[in-house]
Write a structure and sequence with these properties.
The protein is an all-alpha fold. It has one domain. 86% of the residues lie in helices and 0% in strands. It has 15 helices and no strands. It has helices spanning 15-48, 50-87, 90-125, 130-145, 148-162, 168-190, 194-220, 235-267, 271-308, 311-348, 353-366, 370-385, 391-414, 416-420, 422-455. It is globular. It starts with 14 loop residues before the first helix and ends with a helix.
């Protein structure tokens, strides 16, 4: 039996209610996670000016690319762990945790080394302006070199969320965010360390959140305690964990690769546009947190119910969560159209009209298509929770190809307008593919369940 004191069973109760209760701490965690970036952007924008903001923006897709390779693996591990929790198999759960630790150690070191060695070549490929190169490199190098702390935190919190514990990671993240802001002010404004100071502040804060999460698991979560006997490197289990992790990693990475290519087009539009796009993306990512939170919750929800064989709950959960997300989308769109300019000024610290107008222009095109994005995120993560590994990679590859087209054609023909319409067009095309696969999968699953019940 699995101890439920520090866990939440998502295979019982109203699907919407229990998913939202599970999602709220994740949402708050994601908001605070974004504060890492927003604190950097705001403090740097206010204290170091638009050039420093442009420097971060010019390389954000590079370190985002390597972060996605790490974050994706952690998300994939979590899906496999949630399946074993839903099955109620505590022994297999502990073995999966042990195998996760083994893969994570190798993957984290490998990605860090590759990231450091390829940073300068990638910056040159992306046409990073010479006037920004040194400052951008100093920031990105530190972020990549110390990204292992972020990876450790994501893997540990993924373990907790797999067994239904989404509250504990929030508490530790709040401490880390407060520490990050304090260190930002200290390193950047008082000590005058510039962009490297902001990078160190973020890395130290992530290290603290990782340590706190580890201590909590050791002291309070016996479900995740492993012994020497659990370190059985089974071929099938390693394969399940790695393929699930690499599917998520490739999904995020392919998307980021497309974004990186798109950034090369943005870098050619001038420093003001770079700063404006950086600001707009930060705001867009913050708005997107509500949708990605619901999607992440659905991955765990579908993973546990997949393990328990409760496919009826998965269908009901998808329907209810989608309707709820549409209400959130309407609110976000209204907020951007009313308060968009004020948000841009607040985040960027800039009063340059061109920067503000460009950022608002992007947001007002991007946000209305969140209805389509909701469908993609929720159905895709549901499929992933049910063990689908190929579908998200295909959808992400479609997105990358379309972003390459945008960088090579639309940006040249339409300028920044081509950049702004890129994601909405991509979302519409990808949603068609995802929905076809989703309905086919649910139909096959239903038929399989009926056949199994007929036999028994």
């Amino acid at each position: 039996m699995i101890n439920t004191k520090s866990t939440t069973d998502l295979t019982r109760g109203d699907p919407l209610k229990i998913t939202l209760l599970f999602a709220v701490p994740i949402f708050l965690s994601n908001i605070f996670q974004q504060f890492y970036n927003l604190a950097d952007v705001s403090i740097i924008g206010h204290s170091l000016g638009d050039d420093a903001l442009s420097a971060i923006g010019s390389v954000s897709t590079i370190y985002g690319f390597f972060n996605s390779l790490l974050f994706g693996m952690g998300s994939g591990f979590s899906v496999v762990l949630s399946k074993f929790y839903g099955m109620g198999d505590s022994k297999k759960l502990r073995q999966a945790v042990a195998n996760t630790v083994f893969i994570s150690a190798i993957w984290g070191i490998f990605i860090t080394i590759v990231g450091i060695l390829s940073l300068k070549p990638l910056m040159k490929v992306l046409n990073t302006p010479d006037s920004l190169f040194d400052a951008a490199y100093s920031y990105a190098f530190i972020v990549i070199a110390l990204c292992i702390f972020m990876f450790i935190y994501n893997v540990l919190t993924g373990m907790l969320r797999a067994i239904g514990n989404s509250k504990a990671p929030l508490y530790f993240l709040v401490v880390a965010v407060i520490l990050n802001i304090v260190l930002d002010l200290l390193f950047v404004m008082k000590f005058g360390w510039g962009l490297p100071g902001a990078a160190y502040a973020t890395a130290i804060s992530q290290a603290v959140s990782s340590l706190l999460t580890f201590i909590y698991i050791v002291k309070c979560v016996p479900e995740l305690h492993i012994t020497k006997e659990d370190f059985v490197l089974e071929k099938d289990l390693l394969s399940d964990l790695f393929t699930s992790g690499i599917a998520f990693a490739l999904m995020y990475t392919v998307v980021n690769l497309g974004t990186m290519i798109l950034q090369s087009a943005i870098n050619g539009l001038g420093e003001t546009v770079i700063a404006a796009h950086t600001t707009a993306r930060k705001i867009s990512e913050l708005c997107m947190m509500s949708l990605s939170t619901l999607a992440n919750a659905m991955a765990t929800f579908s993973g546990q119910n997949h393990g328990a064989g409760r496919y009826d709950r998965i269908r009901t959960g998808v329907r209810k969560v989608l309707l709820f997300s549409f209400g959130v989308d309407a609110f976000l769109i209204a907020m951007i159209y009313i308060f968009g300019a004020g948000l841009v000024k607040l985040v960027s610290g800039s009063s340059t009209p061109e920067l503000i107008n460009t950022a608002v222009f992007y947001l007002r095109i991007d946000l209305p298509f969140y209805f389509v994005l909701s469908i993609i995120l929720i159905t895709r993560t549901t499929l992933q929770g049910m063990g689908a590994k190929f579908v998200p990679i295909v959808a992400s590859a479609m997105e990358m190809v379309l972003k390459i087209f945008t960088a090579g054609f639309l940006a040249k023909e339409l300028g920044y307008t081509g950049i702004a319409i890129c994601e909405p067009v991509i979302w519409i095309i990808c949603s068609v593919y995802i929905l076809i696969v989703f309905f086919r999968t649910m139909k096959k699953t239903t038929q399989r369940c009926i056949a199994t019940e007929a036999v028994t």
